[in-house]
Write a structure and sequence with these properties.
By secondary structure, the chain is α+β, with helices and mostly antiparallel strands. The chain contains 5 helices and 7 strands, in the order H-E-H-H-E-E-E-H-E-H-E-E. It has one domain: Gcn5-related N-acetyltransferase (GNAT) (Aminopeptidase, 3-Layer(aba) Sandwich), CATH 3.40.630.30. The protein has a 7-stranded mixed sheet, sandwiched between helices. The longest helix is centred in the first third of the chain and has 12 residues.
């Protein structure tokens, strides 16, 4: 059986660098001001996978304010369209993407990929980045696998009975 580090190092690295030609000129990603936290919590609690995971608005607010987290928001033409929550030292000292979400109107446009690329760029110099994805969240799994994340573990019935959380890892350049 391979270690997590060995499994992650098998990833064929295609860095999702924040090259300006790949970033839509109308997209900005910035550290979230406190005034954006409630919008993020509402997006989280009102969309999948958190609906199935039974995370309500108050639990979402709590998750976004956990110590050590860094919340970044994406805006397109000045309007909030998504967020990513990163814990730089979240999993045995390695960066962990706690949550990523896009507004319904922004899905399928590559903006989630841009948020992930931003996170990877933000964490430059680190060896690995981790995240969990729910077993029922096929669309997110496809995105992560396409961007070079590899499955390194599974936690059955972790959040809710009948579903697993899949631990994914990517070796950073």
């Amino acid at each position: 059986m391979r270690t997590i580090a060995e499994t992650c190092s098998l990833a064929h690295m295609q860095p999702a660098a924040m090259n300006q030609k790949h970033v839509p000129p109308t997209l900005t990603i910035e550290r979230a001001p406190e005034s954006d936290f409630d919008w993020c919590a509402r997006l989280m609690s009102g969309s999948e996978p958190w609906i199935t995971l039974r995370r309500d608005l108050e639990q979402s607010r709590t998750a976004l304010h956990r110590p050590g987290g860094e919340l970044f928001v994406a805006r397109e033409r000045g309007q909030l369209v998504g967020f990513i929550l990163i814990h730089p030292n979240g999993l045995a000292g390695s960066p962990y993407i706690t949550s990523i979400a896009m507004a319904e109107s922004a899905r399928g446009k590559g903006l989630g990929s841009q948020l992930l690329a931003f996170a990877e760029h933000h964490l430059a110099g680190r060896r690995f980045i981790f995240l969990c994805v729910s077993s029922f969240n096929r669309r997110a799994q496809e995105l992560y696998y396409r961007l070079g994340y590899k499955r390194v573990g599974e936690i059955p019935n972790y959040v809710i009975e009948g579903h697993s959380e899949l631990l994914l890892c990517k070796k950073l350049p």
